Amino acid sequence: MTIFFFAHFTVLLALGFMLWRRSAAPLRLFFWPAYLLKLAAGVGIGLLYSLYYSTGDTMNYFRDGMLLTDLARHDTGAYLRFLWNTDMDAGVWQTLTFQEPRALFLSKVVSVCGLFTANNYWITGCYFSCIAFASAWYLVKVIHRYNAGCTLAAVVAFLFFPSVLFWSAGIVKESLAMASLYFLSAVFLCYWGRIPAPWFAWLIAPLAIWFLWMLKYYYCAALFPVMLTAVVVRWLYVKVKMLPRFVMPLVWLVVFVVPLAIAATVHPNFYPERFLEVIVSNYEVYASFPDRADRIYYPGLETTAGSIAMHAPVALFSGLFRPLPWEAHHVFQFVMGLENCVLLVLLVMCLWSWRRVWQGGDGILVFSVVVYIMVLAVFLALSTPNFGTLSRYRVGFIPFFVFLTACGNVLLERLQRRMPVSVFDAGGE
Questions:
Q1: In whole angstroms, what is the distance from residue 386 CA to residue 327 CA?
Q2: Are 141 and 24 in contact (CB under 8 A)?
Q3: Which residue among 38, 212, 227, 238 has its CA within the 20 to 30 Å range from the CA of 263?
Q4: What is residue 293's predicted lDDT score, i.e. its pLDDT?
Q5: What is the pLDDT of residues 149-171, one digit of tens each?
Q6: Is residue 75 classed as helix, strand or coil in its secondary structure?
Q7: How far apart are CA 418 and CA 408, in angstroms?
Q8: Mean pLDDT of 339-363
Q9: Please, what is the average pLDDT of the chain?
Q10: Which has the closest alpha carbon to 94: 72, 64, 69?
Q11: Sign of the CA dihedral 257, 261, 403, 320?
C-alpha cells in the first residue's frame, strides 16, 4: 500500500512539475505553495466530513462511485451502458445513494477515477484537486498575460482565498464545476484580449461546457448570457463611435435581455413561470429545517417578480458577506464571518480606485463580471438561504468578486512594490 500511495504521489508531483515548467518565470514563485495547499484542501474535505460530520455528500459520491467501479470490474458492458444512458433497470441503480442526475454524474466520474486509484478516496480526491488547480492556474496565467498589474489580485482570488481554495477541492461537485468555469473564463479572456490560446484549449472547451452544464447548469445560465452580451456591446461600441461611455451600462442591460431570454428556453427550471417557483420552493425547503439560527430570512417571499426584486438587495448582501462574525454559531461559521469581513474591507477599499478601472479600456468587461456576480449571488442566496450550504455554493462567484475588489487595492499595490519587480512583469507561457 505504501508503494501504491508513493506511485500516485509521484504522478501528482510530475503533473505539477509539468504545469510549473510551462508557466512564465514570474508566476513560478506562487506555484508550489498553491498546488500543495490545493492537494491538502482535498484531503481536508475528507477529514472534515469523516471526522466532524461523520458523513456527507463527498462520502456518498465516493460510495456510489465505488459501486459503479465494482460493476465495471464484473460487467464492463453493463458499466459502459450505465455510464452512457443510466439504465434504471440495472441492479446497481437501487443501491445508489444519489439518483439525482447532477449528483449521479459526479459519481460516474468518481467511478472512472476509481478504476486506476483502486477505489481509494484520498488519492481520488487529490486528482480532483489537481484538475481544479490546473484550471485555476491556467486562468491566472491568462490574466497575467492580459494585465500583469492584476497578477497578485488573481493569485489571491483564484489560488489562495481560503473558502475558494477549500470548497473547490476534493470529491465535491464544485471541484470539477469550478475547473470548468475557470477554464471557460480563461478561454474567453484569450478571445477578448486577442491572446493566443493553445490548440488543445479549443478542444477542451466543449468538454468544460458539458461538465459545467451537468454539474452546475445555473452557472451556465449566468455565464454565457453575460459573455455574449459583453461581446455584442463591445462590437457596438466599435461600430457606433458616437456612443458615450456613461450610457454603456444601459446599453449592456438592454442587450442582455436577448441572451437571457434564450437561456430561459434551455432548461425547464429557467422557464419564467417555473423559475420563480424554483427559487421560492427551495427557500421553503430550507425554511422548514429545525435549525433556524443558521438561515437568511425573506419574510413574505412569493413567486412574483416584485417580491423577488424586493428581497434581492438582502439576498445580494447575504450572498456576498454573510454570515458575519456575530451571526456565527460554531467555529466554522465564525471563520467564514472573518473572511466575509475581509470581503467588506476589500469592497470599501475598492471604491477608492473604481474610477481607474472604469475609465480604462476594460469597463465593459468589468461591468459584465459585476452582473455575473450579482445574478448568481442573488439567485443562490434566495434559493439556498442556509449559511453552511451557501458558503460552499457561492464559490461560483466569490473568486471573481475577490479579484475585482483586489485589483488596484492599496495594500496589495504596496505589497507588489515590495516584491521583486520581475515577479509582475508580463511573461509568456
A1: 12
A2: yes
A3: 238
A4: 65
A5: 888 999 999 999 999 999 999 99
A6: coil
A7: 15
A8: 76
A9: 87
A10: 64
A11: positive
Cell of 120: 481509494
Contact 332, 367 (CB under 8 A): no
Q: Are 151 and 27 in contact (CB under 8 A)?
A: yes
pLDDT (tens digit per residue) in 128-143: 999 999 999 999 999 9
Strand-pair partners of 386? 295
pLDDT score for 357? 55
- Non-local CB neighbours of 284 within 8 Å, separated by 6+ positions: none
Helix (H, G, I), strand (E, B) or coil at 142: helix
Quick one: cell of 172?
465535491
pTM over 0.85: yes
Distance, CA of 154 to CA of 139 (rounded, Å): 8
**DSSP helix/strand/coil, 331:** helix
What is the tens place of the pLDDT at every residue in 359-388?
556 888 999 999 999 999 999 999 988 888
- CA-CA distance, 186 to 197, in Å (whole number)? 9
Distance between first and last Cα of the chain: 38
* DSSP per-residue codes, 28-74: HHHHHHHHHHHHHHHHHHHHIIIIISS--HHHHHHHHHHHHHHHHHH
Provide the pLDDT for residue 23.
87
Nearest of 182, 177, 171, 175 to residue 135 by alpha carbon: 182
CB 165 within 8 Å of CB 382: no
pLDDT, tens digit, for every residue of 287-306?
777 666 678 889 888 888 89
Q: Using alpha carbons only, how large is the chain's radius of gyration in Å?
A: 22
Query: Residue 386 in 3-state DSSP?
Result: strand
The DSSP string of 274-311 is HHHHHHHHHHHHHHTSS-GGGB---TT--SSHHHHHHH
Confirm if 266 and 225 have CB atoms less than 8 A apart: no
Read off the pLDDT of residues 75-121 as tens digits, 9 standing for 90 and up.
Answer: 888 888 888 887 676 678 888 888 888 999 999 999 999 999 988 99
DSSP symbols for 171-182: SSHHHHHHHHHH
